[in-house]
Sequence to fold (350 residues):
Amino acid sequence: MVFSNRLRLWYLQNKRDLPWRNTHEPYQIWLSEIILQQTRIEQGLPYYNKFIDAYPTVFDLANAPADEVLKLWQGLGYYSRARNLHESAKYVASELEGIFPQNYKGLLRLKGVGDYTASAIASFCYNEPVAVVDGNVYRVLSRVFGIDTPINSTTGIKEFKKLAQELLDKEDPATFNQALMEFGAIQCKPQNPLCETCPFNDKCLALKDDRIKELPVKLKKTKVRKRYFNYLVFDINKNKTILEQRSGKGIWNGLYQFPLVESNKLITEEELKNLEDFQKLVDNSQFSMELYNEEPVVHKLSHQHLFTRFWLININEGQQEAVKLENVLEYPVPVLIGNFLNEYLPDDYK
Fold:
């Protein structure tokens, strides 16, 4: 209990005032946990507030159009979270009459909910004694207890979950779990942790052995793939353009983009015109074309880097798929496209 007592004392003195900490309602806590997956609180908090304002209940979220949900999520990344969020809301609203599962095992049945999220909701809402293990928890435990088992290995995942469960305050798991995550976020930070004021600095093996920068250990990532995107930004009669919706299991499924021609390197205008994919999209000889950005925009995702250029295609013929430029910002788009539109569109369209 020494560990949990020290942690609790630290938490009572240092915890941040966050809206989802002032409720035991599963909808708000579930929403916050999905938003905060792979997202810092500073970035996620405005999105949480937007979603609560737009969809105060799980029924409101369930009844919202998918494009509207994706649009509200725009800029937060990992869009499968938004799609899973919407699907789970519809399931809870229609199949469970708006009542969330009330234990860890039941919560795991919700789409997009894994061990971490189920543990968080179960302990925060229902005081179920299940330990939460996220990136912050991995970091704290690996440093304090000097564990160098890779945190993204099967062995490491089991080892850290077991340790967290052993340390868990079974009488008040909600406070313990929130305290441990908060401690990793603002005290035992990835870079420049506050070791001098740490309540565990007399016990921390990483500090004792000068291994703070080495821990936690993580297996090397998959090799980053380079991709070259050529977006065709059609300007039809000066007031329309073309958007297409991405489908399949790749990145940004369900979001909208300009017609895309992917190449195996940065290419010239002539090389682009000679590609079959380009010719399928631009089958009219009466068009003019110019490159918007000579220097590609490099958009970095977890396992791939996108080298992106935007090509402006001026054409007079109308297209059935065309949308008015003034309506373009209503569509959910990847942040890469959103940044371009903010720069490209006239102010009166924003």
